[in-house]
Amino acid sequence: MTQTSAGFIALIGEPNAGKSTLLNRMVGAKVSIVTHKVQTTRARIRGVAIEGDAQLVFVDTPGLFAPRRRLDRAMVAAAWSGAADADVVVLMVEAHRGVTQGVERILEQLSEMSRGRTVALAINKIDRVEAPVLLGLTQALNERFDFAETFMISAEKGHGVQQLREWLSGRMPAGPWLYPEDQIADLPMRMIAAEMTREKLTLRLHQELPYQLTVETENWEERKDGSARIDQLIYVARAGHKGIILGKKGETIKAVSQAARLELEEFLGRKVHLFLQIKVREKWLEEAERYSEMGLNFRDGNA
Length: 303
What we know:
Elements: E1 5-13, H1 19-27, E2 45-51, E3 54-60, H2 70-85, E4 88-94, H3 101-113, E5 118-124, H4 131-144, E6 149-152, H5 161-169, H6 189-204, E7 213-222, E8 228-236, H7 239-246, H8 251-268, E9 272-280, H9 288-293
Parallel strand pairs: 1-3, 1-4, 4-5, 5-6, 8-9
Antiparallel strand pairs: 2-3, 7-8
């Protein structure tokens, strides 16, 4: 009988390092939201990939940054918790940004928590720099921390990703698989659907507003014709935000709804009827229930 293995891999790094893009590339499907805005991954999303006889369970953590608000603090706590629980940690660093203050802070934290833990370095977006810069960055980072292995990758284009997958598969503890073979994420579909809508809102709205809103799937109804009716609530902190999301003559929310519906239909492989409603909840950033919906711990947000 073939010996199977399975384990957890935490992807950590600064916001926008490419963690969500790498997760989606590894899993071969979109399970984490990818936008040009920082701090878009709020919950620790687990994506599941199979490599040979190994099952790789990826924990895509929120980007590590200097937290200011309760939500920020809860996100950073979730990121470090994800790293502490993992069998292997992969630190992602953007090639063109090099060793930033944020990367220095992460390396310090890693030094404190990683005794006996396997930590790999993935230098991402390698197509943005010349070879001598890459070699210099690799050397600088490996002098600061004892990485088990260093990978040069482009998560967006797929360069080097297969080598990383194969290396990770060899580091998984022996044991039965943790999820059914056909399961790609352990997030409830309601949350994946909410994340897709939130991604479309984030892409559409270029102000600070995206961090002041959250999306929840209020109702999911399976219809006899095989389609699904999905009702979602968009919570905003101020009455003025409602008008921004609605847009002129409702154009913004209409475009968001259409884009989210099309992506949901592609993801689910069937017709979707999506209904969005905006609710003003001034204190949603201070409500424990909203944090639970995002897979975060409300208490971790305490100063």
